[in-house]
Structure formats: C-alpha cells, structure tokens
C-alpha cells in the first residue's frame, strides 16, 4: 500500500499518528479518540484499507480555495469508511478541531493528557500535492493501522 497512517499514541480524547507515503514519513496526524461505538464527529477512523479521492463538492472547499488559492484543487477525502462521510485530511491543532478527520502537523506536544499537532498549515501545504497526485492516480489506497509505541 502506497499511503499509510500508523497510529502511535493515545491521549485522553486524542490519537496521534504518522503519515507515510511510499514508506517515507511525511508528517504527524491527529484524530479523535478511538471508540468502540462511534460518536459523530468525535471518533477516530476505524483501522482498515480505504481509498483517497478528491472531493470538490463538500462544504470545506470554498474555505480552502480562499486560504490556498494556488494550491487547492479539492479536499483530500478518505473514502469508503463505514459510518463516516466527508472525512478530509485538513489543518487544525487539537482534537476539538478534528470533527472526525485527521489533522496534519510537523510536530506534536502533549498538553493536559491530550496530543496536539504543530505547524499544521505548513504540513498541509507540503503533503497536499502528494496526496492529490495519489487521489488522482491509479493507486489510491490508504491503510490505517494501530501500532501504539508511547
């Protein structure tokens, strides 16, 4: 699988992951807590194999088109998730900003028992073109696995 999210740590309400493309570390990702029973907009994506696609019709497109006029060609959506829809890789720093989506960052910190990602906008601008190329290419697969290390 070309694109992989590996979860490495859990906070009280947060989950920290690493994003790899072709086996090379790209950035950290932050999600909500992993839950047995899904709570809308407050639950991490289940482990599994999914696809990436470019979404040009979701509500975040206008906001990102304005924020990144030269970069944005549509949101990068993780598609094929059970009981989830409109799950985008986007910018933000804390689990309160995830709404069930992974947030990207170039670093992380643990604050009051929960992880936060840092320099999210910078990380997004770096990974977006790579993820867009994957979403528009032939090998669109993305795997999500738990491998908690700390």
UniProtKB/TrEMBL annotation:
Alphabetical list of InterPro entries matching this protein: DUF5675
Q: List each copy of the DUF5675 domain by range.
A: 4-130
One Pfam match, given by its short name, reads: DUF5675
By what name is this protein known? DUF5675 domain-containing protein
């Amino acid at each position: 699988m070309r694109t992989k999210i590996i979860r490495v740590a859990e906070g009280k309400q947060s989950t920290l992951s690493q994003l790899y493309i072709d086996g090379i570390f790209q950035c950290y990702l932050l999600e909500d807590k992993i839950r047995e029973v899904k709570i809308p907009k407050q639950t991490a994506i289940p482990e599994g194999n999914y696809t990436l696609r470019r979404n040009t019709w979701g509500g975040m497109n206008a906001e990102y088109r304005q924020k990144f006029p030269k970069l944005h060609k549509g949101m990068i959506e993780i598609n094929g998730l059970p009981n989830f829809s409109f799950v985008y890789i986007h910018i933000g720093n804390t689990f309160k900003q995830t709404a069930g989506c992974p947030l990207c960052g170039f670093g992380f910190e643990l604050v009051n028992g929960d992880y936060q990602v840092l320099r999210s906008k910078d990380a997004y601008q770096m990974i977006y073109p790579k993820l867009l190329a994957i979403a528009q290419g032939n090998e669109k697969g993305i795997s999500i696995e738990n491998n908690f290390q700390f």
